[in-house]
Amino acid sequence: MTKRLESKYKINRRLGVNLWGRAKSPITKRETIPGQHGARRKQKPTDFGVQLMAKQKLKGYYGNIGEKQFQKYYQEAVRRKGDTSENLIELLERRLDAVVYRMKLAVTPFAARQFVNHGHLTVNGKRLNIPSYQVRDNDLIEVKEKSKQLTAVLDAAQSGERDVPDYIEIDHRAMRGRFLRAPKLADVPYPVQMEPNLVVEFYSR
C-alpha cells in the first residue's frame, strides 16, 4: 500500500475534521489526532499554523495531492488573471479525478483517482488514464462499456451521501456526463470550510 493511500485513514483525525463528510470517518468515533500524544489538549495555532492547516485540508480533500504538484497549481493560479484563490479552486475542480468524484462515479477522491488510473473512462471518446488531466468546459466524460456494471460505480451512483453540483451534469443510467463550467468557491459543495485565501497567504509569505 502506498504512503498516500495509507494516509487517508489518518488524515481526518490529523486535521480534526470530517473532510469528505462521510459517515465512516474515524473523526466521528475519536476526535483526537493520531499518535501517542493525540489526547493532549490542543493549543491555539499560530497564523502560520492556520495557513498550513488550510493548505493541508485542500491538498487532502483532493486525494492528498503531492506537495510539488500542489505548488504547481498555486503557481498557475498566480499566473492567471483574476483572484488567485478562485483560480486555485478552478484548477483543482478541473482535475479529471475530481470531476469523476463530483459525478458520483466513485465514493471517495482516492477511489476516483484509482478508477481513472485503471482506464475505465473516456473523455470526448478518447481513453484517458491521467487523474490530473485538466477537463475543459463541455468535455464529455463517459464510463467505458465494460466498466458500467462495476459494483463500485453502481454503489457510488446510488449513494445518498452527496449531490452532484450544478456545474456538472450526469446521466447515471448511461454513465456519462459533462463538465459544464468552472465553478467558483461558493459553488463547490465542500463538507467543511475551505479557505484558499489562506493557502495563497501561506505560499506568498
Automatic annotation (TrEMBL):
This is Small ribosomal subunit protein uS4. InterPro entries: Ribosomal_uS4, Ribosomal_uS4_bac-type, Ribosomal_uS4_CS, Ribosomal_uS4_N, S4_RNA-bd, S4_RNA-bd_sf. Residues 3-93 form the Small ribosomal subunit protein uS4 N-terminal domain. NCBIfam families: PRK05327.1, rpsD_bact. Pfam families: Ribosomal_S4, S4. Belongs to the universal ribosomal protein uS4 family. One of the primary rRNA binding proteins, it binds directly to 16S rRNA where it nucleates assembly of the body of the 30S subunit. Keywords: Ribonucleoprotein, Ribosomal protein, RNA-binding, rRNA-binding. GO terms for cellular component: ribosome. Part of the 30S ribosomal subunit. Contacts protein S5. The interaction surface between S4 and S5 is involved in control of translational fidelity. Residues 94-158 form the RNA-binding S4 domain.
